[in-house]
TrEMBL record:
Lipid bilayer topology: Multi-pass membrane protein
Origin organism lineage: Eukaryota, Fungi, Fungi incertae sedis, Zoopagomycota, Kickxellomycotina
Single Gene Ontology MF annotation: protein-macromolecule adaptor activity
Membrane-spanning parts: 16-38, 50-68, 80-103, 110-128
GO biological process: sterol biosynthetic process
Naturally occurring in which organism (per UniProt): Coemansia interrupta
Record localization: Endoplasmic reticulum membrane
Gene that this sequence comes from: ERG28
Domain of life: Eukaryota
InterPro entries assigned: Erg28
Principal place of residence: endoplasmic reticulum
Name of protein: Ergosterol biosynthesis protein
Membership in a protein family: Belongs to the ERG28 family.
One cellular-component annotation, GO: endoplasmic reticulum membrane
Keyword field: Endoplasmic reticulum, Lipid biosynthesis, Lipid metabolism, Membrane, Steroid biosynthesis, Steroid metabolism, Sterol biosynthesis, Sterol metabolism, Transmembrane, Transmembrane helix
Length: 137
């Protein structure tokens, strides 16, 4: 049910996805414990729009992402799970691009850069390695 560190598939991608899952858990806890802290820093363009409610909704999305990423890291050969995890990164990346470019609620430079870099790195890496993990298992 929870996987095991000894069962993680070979290669850097599963480890990167697992690390991303751990950071997602950290972000989830932060959004719940201090809802106006880091979330307001991420959305520094319009921090007044960040409320405890929006932070809690962000925590729920991030928790779901953490579960997907964790499960995918240990089950890289599961095509459906791989694809859903991939799309979770696409959605996250698209969200942050829209917040920077369209809605102007996030700013560069700022904490949003690290989240955006993880999303882009994951998207590209998962595209490049998809055949290896899906067909190779």
């Amino acid at each position: 049910m929870f996987g095991g560190l000894l069962a993680i598939p070979a290669g850097g991608l599963p480890k990167f996805i697992l690390l991303s899952a751990f950071f997602s858990v950290f972000n989830t806890v932060q959004c719940l414990v201090a809802p106006l802290g880091m979330t307001r820093r991420i959305y520094s363009g319009q921090p007044q729009q960040v409320t405890p409610l929006t932070s809690h909704v962000f925590a729920a999305w991030t928790a779901l992402s953490a579960v997907l990423r964790y499960k995918c890291a240990f089950n890289m050969g599961n095509e459906a799970l791989y694809d859903i995890t991939f799309w979770s990164y696409v959605i996250a990346g698209t969200h942050f691009v829209s917040e920077i470019v369209v809605f102007r609620t996030s700013r560069i430079p700022g904490p949003v850069i690290s989240t955006f870099c993880v999303a882009v790195t994951s998207i590209l890496w998962m595209i490049m390695e998809r055949d290896f993990y899906i067909s190779g298992f």
